[in-house]
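task queued by scheduler; priority normal; single chain, no ligands, no partner chains; default sampling; output format set to structure tokens
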Amino acid sequence: MWKILLEEFLGDLKQQKTRAFLTIFAMVWGTISIVLLLAFGQGLKTQISEGLLNAGERIFMVYGGETSLDFEGLKKGRRIRLREDDLDLILRAIPEFEMGSPSYGRNGSHLKVGVNQTTTYMEAVYPVFSELRRMFPAAGGRFINQRDLEEKRRVLFLGDGIAKRLFEDTPPVGQTVMLDGLPFRVVGVMESKFQDSSNNGPDEDRVIIPASTFQTIYGNQFVQHLIVRPRDVNNAGVAKAELYRVLGARYKFDRDDERALSLWDFIEDEKITSQIGLGIQIFLGLVGGFTLLVAGVGVANIMYVVVRERTREIGIKLAVGARRRHIVSQFMFEAILIAVGGGLIGLGFASLIVWGVDAIPNDDPAMQYILNPKLSVPIASLCVGILMIIGLVAGLLPARRAAQLDPVESLRYE
């Protein structure tokens, strides 16, 4: 039966080449539209998320603040400044946190290599900072380690941007950099990453040294901020509340005083970013879906025309004993084949466009949001499913109309 249906479909295509071309082209164009919109939407969502996560993955950045509530006879307006040993307290007293690092900061640190020199933001941290902030070393180097910390070594880790300015084409690892007049050995350079959120500038322009080395040289009493990561993002709210409770007990402020600490919640930001990205995807998907729906309406109209043109043929088939379900199958088969065939062609073209655009090298951060489409299996599956539905709907009504024709009246049709 399927062989007969296919032969009839191919024969009809040969007789009505222009009509068949326009119908299939409508499905191809509609499919390309929805696939490209969804792929660019997915790419935009991914890039927005990556831009945030590359500044900090599932972390809280905790800064000192100023009390806004009276507490146990102490007046509001007291300044809270955090110390390195506050991190030890947090990790001991709050099991919801799994790791953390202090961050000492110094703006305007001077770096010099030969005749090349620059100023930048220097940050002094623990080794786990690399994972918390996604500052991973490029091949051939490393991040600062525990031994560097324990021995207070003069070693540093460079962002890829500042490494390029200082060393140009010379491999930086193992070289000596004068940092604020003191010699430091470069142990690693950051692997290049996309970042659209930062504190005190992008990581590519940052220099990292061990926290113990910074303390020995500069003697800062207070940290710039603390970075802590909850074990489970689902318990982030509990971890945050415990943070205010534990530090509130140490620094004598109300646990409900949110201004006593300034907290950058990357977990909540990630949720908001994900929701924004999903909203963009839904909007673009609806636009593409309406385009495909218009193509589906075109297929239905064409099928109605086909029914009218083949009325005598249908009458002859019914007169010689063809059952109505055979007539329905014929037109349903044609509609589905047009929809799915045109859709698969469109999917192929769209995939080539996505692959080509995604392969374009681009260092412009703004263009990375656009030139980063992602064609996923769920998107492709969704498109195929939509095409199947459109084919069924577009063919159902014309097919039923054809099957309900009276054989006698069909044979008289001119």
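post-processing summary
- The longest helix spans residues 266-309.
- Strands lie at 60-64, 97-113, 116-125, 155-158, 176-179, 182-189, 206-210, 225-230, 261-265.
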